[in-house]
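for the record, two folds in this file. i put them one after another cuz i was lazy. first one right below, seq on top, structure tokens after. the second one comes after a little note so u can tell where it starts
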Amino acid sequence: MVKLIALYRRPDDPAAFDRHYAEVHTPLVRKMPGLQALTVVKLNDLPGMSTPYYLLAEMTFADQEALNQAMRSEAGRAAAKDLQQFAGGLVDMMVGEEFTAAR
């Protein structure tokens, strides 16, 4: 299982960001072929610690090839274009693979 992970820094206008993310960006992401799951988490500070991040999104795909195909698709290109327009300066993207940690 492969995850495309997006970490968003705090936007200047959280309400406008949330609205765009929910009404525009999420529907674009959900159209990506091969997407198995989308998990979105608003992040909070721990006591005594401040996080620069506001939101985390995980998009799950079966494997790297499924992710690659999704990113090359029309829906993937539309989601990427929207991301750059509304959050290009706020987002860090990475790919990760799930694994089971030894006990």
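(here's the note) second protein begins now
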Amino acid sequence: MRARVIIYNPDLTAILLIHRQKKQRNYWVVPGGGAKRSETPRETAIREINEELQIELTPAQLRQLFVIDDEYFFLTDYRQKAVPDISGEEKERSTSTNVYRPAWVTLSELLKINLMPPALSNKILAVIKYRL
């Protein structure tokens, strides 16, 4: 089981994604990762976001949205405009051929990038536009 958090900044109308460049691949992912031991999806999401981006979330801040192939997606609002630095295992694994780069991606750019999995862009837009 994996858990990911769609971190939405309503002031920027953007979500925080991780730009990956790995060997010859160039794509984007929602931050998150795999469960440890008997973690719940929510616990995994909180731990992974803290480890990867040093953003501390509480269970009440996460709204579970949907599940795609055993990956749980949550949504939270986050109003910091600065892009956090990558940390944890991702920072340790970063090399010139294995890049992890957080960035704010506006909703208008979302359909123009290579977000993985491919069906995710439309799901994110539907959820966020429903809230606007």
